[in-house]
Specification:
By secondary structure, the chain is an alpha/beta fold. The protein is built from nine helices and 14 strands. It is 39% helix and 24% strand. Strands 5-8-2-1-11-13-14-12 form an eight-stranded mixed beta sheet, sandwiched between helices. Strands 3-4 form a two-stranded antiparallel ribbon. Strands 6-7 form a two-stranded antiparallel ribbon. A hairpin with a 2-residue loop joins strand 3 and strand 4.
Length: 298
């Protein structure tokens, strides 16, 4: 008699098959941030997930943040981090530290990916003029060298994917005068996913997903269309911290991305569970013409 655990493993593989077929050779952008960047075991899980996506035929691109690490280093050099409306105030000295830290994080991720036998290239938005920005303000207040993305030049990413590399992007860009700016990693991931006509954009966060009622942990929504997401925001059912992320998701869908996933990066292998299983474990935001995969009531 075959052991049940082996049959269960076979079932998992069979469940994943239609998703592997559907998304073969499609671009998937993974925004990597939160606790999954700090905890070494979670970091290893995420990189394994992305490596598996690559090996089964997807074309992944990682866009990473590094806010916690930047704050740590800003403190180390005796500066005090300041934020306005959730945006880091970035003076010239902070910008120098941020670029140094993000470059360090970037190359660490390259090493992790390559240790799994995947060819990876770490770049910033400055390379190839990929991310052109203008100065961003917070409700009219000057917050220093924080960039608002004006244009994405995807040629470098396209070339890397064509040559079978996995691009790992840190969110640093330049303005028309070649001044360096820090960019919100969520914004960078959305802009890149849109410019690359990505099939999927996945946000790894420190939350489980979108709730119908933010005070009810049992009200997690597995899938919702754009108009439903907009309605949740308008009705005030979404917690304050989720609103900018959900707006980013809606914007990415409107710009041509087919599906956007909000996942809890603290759950081991959440990326694989969301993409390769029928129900998933996070929230998927869909285009209006996209069919739901999971048909039970949310």
């Amino acid at each position: 008699m075959v052991n049940q655990k082996y049959l269960d493993k076979a079932e998992v593989l069979i469940e994943a098959l239609p998703y592997i077929q559907r998304f073969n050779r499609k671009i998937v952008v993974v925004k990597y941030g939160g606790s999954a960047m700090v905890d070494n075991e979670l970091k290893k899980n995420v990189i394994e997930d992305v490596a598996l996506l690559k090996l089964v035929g997807f074309k992944p691109i990682i866009v990473h943040g590094g806010g916690k690490e930047i704050s740590r280093w800003v403190g180390k050099v005796g500066m005090e981090p300041h934020f306005v409306n959730g945006l880091r105030v970035t003076d010239a000295e902070t910008m120098e530290v941020a670029e140094m830290v993000l470059s360090k994080v970037n190359k660490e991720l390259v090493s992790l990916v390559q240790s799994l036998g995947i060819k990876a290239v770490g770049i910033s938005g400055k390379d190839g003029g990929m991310l052109r920005v203008s100065k961003k303000t917070a409700d009219g207040e000057d917050i220093g060298f924080v960039g608002e993305i004006e244009e994405v030049a995807p040629k470098l990413l396209e070339d890397l994917l064509e040559k079978d590399f996995l691009p790992i992007v840190c969110p640093i860009g330049m303005d028309k005068d070649f001044q360096t700016y820090n960019i919100n990693a969520d914004d960078a991931a959305c802009a890149i996913a849109s410019a690359m006509n990505a099939e999927k954009l996945a946000f790894l966060t420190d939350i489980e997903g979108v709730y119908r009622d933010s005070s009810d942990p049992d009200s997690l929504i597995s899938e919702l269309h754009v108009h439903e997401a907009e309605k949740l925001i308008a009705q005030g059912n979404v917690g304050g911290g989720m609103i900018p992320k959900l707006n980013n998701c809606i914007h990415a869908i409107c710009e041509g991305v087919n599906r956007v996933h909000i996942l809890d990066g603290r759950i081991p292998h959440s990326l694989l569970l969301e993409i390769f299983t029928n129900k998933g474990i996070g929230t998927a935001i869909l285009r209006e013409d996209e069919k739901r995969y999971y048909h039970e009531n949310n």
